[in-house]
Design brief:
The chain contains 15 helices and two strands. With about 300 residues, it is an all-alpha fold. Strand 1 and strand 2 form a beta hairpin. The chain has a two-stranded antiparallel ribbon with strand order 1-2.
Length: about 300
């Protein structure tokens, strides 16, 4: 069984080492985020999955740091695209060093992750994941202000943009454990399903300010509509919500009205249920894994993550 707190400490130390090796001026933004690593959920899931086999602390830490390095890169890129002012309670990298340097710093992180993956013989799995992440981000940009986006298309988007990195982490953990290909695939599928549930939940918390304390729906200013809004739009018989979202004058002052309209049309409730449904399906996959400390640990990690995303 994996000692998760110690595994997370090792992982974060390895992540800091990787970031420290990046050249200036690209290393600064990466080191700032690596020094404020958040929950390291993807790497923690990797460590929990590795617990199904004999302990391999060094490889677990190295692969966990690799996954978190990819995540770090996506955060810098997301913040530029979303024009986010903060990340983990601190100024977003692009507000400090500019958008160009922040994007290039993220690219340097991805290149370094690719090098580490090649050292481990995992370049195909990692390159496929990075490709899917990039395509998911592109889909997110392309669907801006699409009030008619079907839910299946949204689910495809979050599978690529979010689920794929969760899949990679869980599959790499299963590989560290020495599990057979069917078990590696099953834990990867668990990661995908849980990652999608996690993203939908975060969409809900982005609007449900009363429970999260997060900024209220600011992605909507860029035309990026999450699950609650898309669910509500399907019931927008009067067209009031659509008109608000597409109004040229739509701004921060309209966000409280936005939340009210989404809630009144049942969008938040339906999206919370959609997140719970994806989570249930993911957890059902674990029923096929051997019962014991490793499975219980993985369930505990998943349960503890069922809170606002970091």
């Amino acid at each position: 069984m994996t000692d998760l707190p110690r595994a997370r400490d090792r992982m974060q130390a390895r992540l800091a080492e990787l970031a420290a090796g990046l050249p200036e001026p690209l290393g600064g933004p990466a080191r700032e985020l690596a020094g404020n690593p958040g929950k390291c959920l993807r790497g923690t899931l990797l460590a929990a999955c590795a617990g199904f086999g004999p302990p391999d602390p060094e490889r677990t830490a190295g692969l966990g740091a690799l996954v978190e390095l990819i995540h770090l890169a996506t955060l810098m890129h997301d913040d530029v695209i979303d024009r986010a002012a903060q990340r983990r309670g601190r100024p977003a990298a692009h507000t400090v060093v500019g958008g160009d340097v922040a994007m290039l710093s993220g690219l340097a992180c991805l290149a370094l992750a690719g090098t580490r993956a090649a050292d481990e013989g995992l370049e195909l799995a990692v390159s496929r994941t990075v490709s899917e992440l990039a395509y998911g981000e592109l889909l997110d940009v392309e669907r801006a202000f699409d009030t008619g986006l079907p839910l299946p298309d949204y689910e495809e988007l979050i599978a690529r943009k979010t689920g794929e990195l969760f899949r990679l982490g869980c599959a790499l953990g299963a590989a560290v454990a020495g599990l057979d290909i069917d078990a590696v695939r099953a834990l990867g599928d668990f990661g995908m399903g849980f990652g999608m549930a996690f993203q939908i939940l975060d969409d809900c918390l982005d609007l449900d300010g009363a429970s999260s304390g997060k900024p209220l729906g600011t992605d909507h200013l860029l035309g990026l509509f999450g699950a609650p809004t898309l669910c509500a739009l399907r019931r927008d018989g009067s067209g009031e919500l659509t008109e608000l979202l597409l109004s040229p004058s739509f701004g921060i002052g309209d966000l409280p009205r936005l939340r009210l309209l989404v809630a009144e049309r049942g969008g938040l409730a339906e999206a919370y249920e959609l997140a719970a449904r994806h989570r249930r399906r993911a957890m059902e996959i674990l029923d096929g894994m051997p019962y014991g400390p490793a499975r219980r640990t993985l369930v505990q990690v998943a349960d503890s993550a069922w809170s606002p995303a970091a």
